[in-house]
Amino acid sequence: MQLPVYYVFDGLDVRSPYDVLVVGRKGPHSSAGSGAPYFLISTQGARHFDDLFGTPDVAQLDIAS
Predict the structure, then answer these.
(1) pLDDT by residue for the chain (65 residues), tens digit each?
(2) Helix (H, G, I), strand (E, B), or coil: what is residue 22?
(3) Cα three-residue angle 29-22-27, rounded to 5 degrees
(4) Which of 10, 18, 19, 20 is nearest to 49 (CA)?
(5) HEC profile for 28-58?
(6) Cβ distance 26 to 37 under 8 Å?
């Protein structure tokens, strides 16, 4: 589908696809399972969810406080 994949960790810290390509490293190849390639990436340096995607304007959504 050519959609970007964002990596969300516990606590809603997020890594973007660009982050993974820059700081990630390829995981070891395994003959078990599908054998699909994957990246290993640390949660250190991940951004907070709202910092990456922004926060919705509560007034714009007509949500009562």
Answers:
(1) 677 888 888 888 999 888 888 888 888 887 777 877 788 888 888 999 888 888 766 555 555 55
(2) helix
(3) 10
(4) 10
(5) CCCCCCCCCCCEECCCCCCEEHHHHHCCCCC
(6) yes
23-43 in b/e burial notation, b at 16+ Cβ within 10 A? ebeeeeeeeeeeeeeeeebee
Q: Which residue has the tokens 């003959």?
A: 31
- Please tell me the pTM assigned to this model: 0.58
CA distance 12 to 52: 11
Q: Which two tokens stand for residue 20?
A: 């993974």
For residues 2 and 9, give the distance between their C-alpha atoms in angstroms, rounded to a whole number: 22
**Contact indicator for 48, 8 with CB cutoff of 8 Å:** no
